[in-house]
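User: Here's a chain of 263 residues. Predict its fold as tokens.
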Amino acid sequence: MAKVPISICIVARNEEEYIERCLKNVYVWADEILVVDGESTDNTVKIAKKYAKVFVRPNDPSHHINKKWCFDQARNKWIFSLDADEALSDELKREIEQVIREGGRGFNGFNMPRVNMVHGKPLKHDWPGHMLRLYRKGTEYFKGERLHEYIQIKGKVGLLKSPLLHFGWWRGMHQYIYKLNNYSTFDAQRMVELGQDYSFWKLMKNVLMNILHLSKTRVAFNPFPYGLFFLFGNVLNECMLFFKIHEFKRHRKRHDLDVNKYG
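Assistant: Prediction complete.
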């Protein structure tokens, strides 16, 4: 069976736990698989070389730098941006094949739902929303803001119905806290650089809005301990953001030196 004319683009660092499942998922399906490794210290590169063309580049904290570079290397008209801890469902693969056969149906990009997996099963109450992952090469551009790359598309964006599977969303409490710390640091830096403030009253408002949102979407009611911890994590993230913004504003030099150290 002929492979689908699509380039799978992956940016990874220290993903030996997940990347083989990810690559096996698309190896016999996609015409091209490209992996840009951010100087991993584990077996990520060794594993990836069995399935993909691998490039090793500096681990730039602004993730969109390596992602954009990876896109530029792709030889196909269609690009799928895949994370090392994700996989395409069979239904999503078939839907993408149909889209490519039909020339994109007048769209230059496609959103799709992403399902978070916990211990191999979908999260009971998941976050609503969609991910923009499929692009016509040359129509995507980055509104990059350090950790979050905010990809934009020139032209119309469509919606696919089938899910992308996310296996690395929950890797244990240690990793979850580690990500909260990293994300709040980058967000605090961005807000300081843009001259934005974060008052105590805004903190209180955001904490309340987070609690209401997690309750309305029932994410807070996931089986113990996940629902409780997601609620706690969102509140903790807002508190860390508040304190880091004020700390960075008081110590501008520390702000410049302390961020961007996370691997």
